[in-house]
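dumping this here so i dont lose it
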């Protein structure tokens, strides 16, 4: 199968390695090019190009250059719309659990109603609609792994607010994209098996590293929710790193 990865960054490179190891063809489309063994690199801006390489399936993993609405609109809506117009292949789109604006720590899943209050959330949902018309959308939790550990957010002089985190290690995010493509639904939440309270994560990291944890603030960071991966697991997907403990331990 010939795979097109549009936006080949943190998750995309891990996905590319999985596909190459499986003997599949991989073409990465980015603005600056990528250097991954066995991967053909095409340098182009997907929001402006009028041509994309032929492919049997497309993974749209573009990141916005900023957190403002214009950056979201360009990367997630306009870039994705241009991509689906230039290919007939099914698309798997990388979205975010940030679409859930829940603040009370309750559980959410693919069926949870969302009433967006910000333009960024509305744009994420609009991009999901485009993706689901042509394939599948995957809502990722917080990504971490080699090169993206972020322990200084929880240790030392950091202030750690209350509330839950929903995490997934990079290699599991890559395998989740493949599981979502093979699944029967057009929307999946991709997180590990155990949401973790930020204070608990800080205490655990402190024990693992021997460093003092940050100040544990009782103010809750918004949004605050616990995401279920039950639908994704129903495809047969199993995370290599089922919780933050297995995922972070070799990184610390």
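and the seq i came up w/
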């Amino acid at each position: 199968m010939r795979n097109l990865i549009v936006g080949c960054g943190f998750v995309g490179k891990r996905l590319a390695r999985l596909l190459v190891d499986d003997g599949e063809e991989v073409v990465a489309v980015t603005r600056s090019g990528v250097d991954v063994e066995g991967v053909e690199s095409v340098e182009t801006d997907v929001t402006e190009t009028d041509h994309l390489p032929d492919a049997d399936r497309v993974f749209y993993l573009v990141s916005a250059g900023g957190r403002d609405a214009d950056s979201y609109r360009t990367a997630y809506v306009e870039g994705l719309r241009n991509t689906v117009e230039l290919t007939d292949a099914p698309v798997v789109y990388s979205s975010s659990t940030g679409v859930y604006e829940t603040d009370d720590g309750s559980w959410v899943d693919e069926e949870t109603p969302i009433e967006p209050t910000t333009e960024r959330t509305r744009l994420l949902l609009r991009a999901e609609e485009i993706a689901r018309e042509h394939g599948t959308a995957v809502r990722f939790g917080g990504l971490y792994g080699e090169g993206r550990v972020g322990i200084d957010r929880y240790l030392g002089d950091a202030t750690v607010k209350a509330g839950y985190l929903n995490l997934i290690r990079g290699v599991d995010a890559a395998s989740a994209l493949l599981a979502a493509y093979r699944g029967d639904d057009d929307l999946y939440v991709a997180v590990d098996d155990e949401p973790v309270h930020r204070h608990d994560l800080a205490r655990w990291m402190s024990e693992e590293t021997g460093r003092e944890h940050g100040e544990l603030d009782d103010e809750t960071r918004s949004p605050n929710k616990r995401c279920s991966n039950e639908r994704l697991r129903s495809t047969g997907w199993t995370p290599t790193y089922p919780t933050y403990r297995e995922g972070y331990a070799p990184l610390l």
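The chain has one domain: 2-251.
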